[in-house]
Amino acid sequence: MPHLPRSVTAISSREFADALGSVPGKIGLAISGGSDSICAATLFSKLRHDCHCFIVDHRLRPGSASEAATVKGYLDDLALPATILTLQWPGDPSTIPNIETEARRLRFQALGRACRDASIGTLLLAHHADDQVETLLMRLSESHGPWGLTGTAPVGDIPECEGIYGVHQSGLPSNVSNTATDPKIESGGIKVIRPLLAFGKTRLIATCMEHQSSWVEDKTNKDPTLTARNAVRSILETHTFPAALSKPSLLALNARLLKHEAVVRNETQNLLQQCDIKLHVQTGVLRVLLPANLQYCMPGSQLTTRADKRAVVGGFIKYLVKMITPRSMISVQQLSSAAFAMFPLLQDNSDLQTDSTNCGGVLFTRIGNPSEYATSLNSRISASETSSSWVLSREPPTKTNPSPCLDFPPSTLKSTSHSQDLQLFDGRFWFRLRNYTTVQLRLRLLKPDDLNQLRRAKLNATLIRQLNATLKEAAPGKSRWTIPVLICIPAEGGEDQVVGLPTLGVRLRDEAWANIDSQWQYKKVDLDFAKVATVTAAI
């Protein structure tokens, strides 16, 4: 049992309840068996809140199953329900490079699925203040700028689970309007919370000792040669740092950075809400109108320098990009070309303007006549007040970055599941498709030959006019080559046969659609943050 200074006190139930805050519904607890997670479990056992604990057996060393069972016994002593999740490796783990990274991915995916299946929307992780200090030192050593220096967030989406329906930013679709036939936009997903970030490691140990809770020590955490974090932890334990790099100083720095980030976020929201932003849900295309009297920062703002304004604009661009990009990771540093294109005054040479740029997986295109564009959109910004207007869409596929595909082989088995088999297509659309035809179906992005085939098909003239009008409005120019198209692949080879444009409701080959069961939703986006309007087209 470790010896602690008398000044170190256990975390009280009141302190923990205040740190936890109000969390609706059942909470999941990720339990490794170490003092950190056992402390969280001990404190949680004192609360009258429904929970379930999850222990992950990584199967990376002999005796891991026995150790997991021991940890479950500790939780039984606390009267907390628990389940052991045994990881399934795709091969021999000892042959996998970057085993720590892969173990983290599989661990979070197992935890995410377990939470989803148990109708748990929040997963508690036992990261603490010492973990935060290690993270800050690692980021300082990697020369992160101020926007990448902040530590672990107390609340966030579950990591490593993109594309798992009902786990990552999905599971609760809602109509974009009150009309039941309108498209749906996703919401939901598992959130992770870290209520122990304000408490040091010694207080967590003191809590376990006060309540006589047992825990296990993972010897691999003490090996400084195993991971970068272990090395930093070892240095912190064995070296004296200057005052500026002490634990209190680093935590104070993190608090200041978080406060500044909150100010930037508020100004970013103000900047977005001055603009007129419309999302075409069926095509994933954004139209953005910027007013002539745009204010980068509100009067009296703490943000006064050009660097501050660039930070606000960086947040502005990142928000827009995240709504329509196929990419899962976006950094502000990748978005400077779009920031300077839309806001040329932020450049050192504001005379350098561009009408088109690519960044973050998104194509930015300036519209030539913004006043006419504002009128055609029924914008809340008048034509005379419009400074510039833009169309934002996913970058069209290229030879080096081809269209993604989802294949749906024919099946005779009727499925009864209606949600968990949705798949994320192109990082933008969730699709469920059951193929009861006799041919292979494929979902990919629209090509010029597909559109020509649609126009040659025996569609009535009214439908063709509606399709052309919709493409002009909802997918102008190159953006139409980012619309999902469903095709069938002839068994004997030859040209792909267009079956339809599922997000636009365009269907060819009625005999095929009679044997296709499909559903789609747009990915999760925060419309309220920028007061984004949604636009749908009926064909």
Q: What percent of residues are in strands? A: 15-25%
Number of strands: 22
Q: What share of residues is helical?
A: 25-40%
Biggest sheet statistics: 6 strands, mixed
Number of helices: 15
Distance between the termini: 71 Å
- CATH architecture label name of the largest domain: 3-Layer(aba) Sandwich
Low-confidence stretches: none
> Could you please say which CATH topology of the largest domain applies here?
Rossmann fold
Which superfamily, in CATH terms, is the homologous superfamily of the largest domain?
A: HUPs
Number of domains: 3
Spatial extent as radius of gyration: 27 Å
Average of per-residue pLDDT values: 89
Q: Order of strands across the widest beta sheet?
A: 3-2-1-4-8-5
- The best one-word shape is globular
The top-level CATH class of the largest domain is: Alpha Beta
Based on secondary structure, the structural category is: alpha+beta
Describe this structure in words.
There is one protein chain. It contains 15 helices and 22 strands. The strands form five sheets. Strands 3-2-1-4-8-5 form a six-stranded mixed sheet, sandwiched between helices. α5 (129-141) packs across α7 and α5 crosses α8 (247-274). 36% of the residues are buried. With 539 residues, it is an alpha+beta fold. The longest helix is centred in the middle third of the chain and has 28 residues, at 247-274. One of its GO terms (biological process) is tRNA processing. This is tRNA(Ile)-lysidine synthetase.
Summarize the model shown.
This protein has 539 residues and is an alpha+beta fold. The protein has 15 helices and 22 strands.
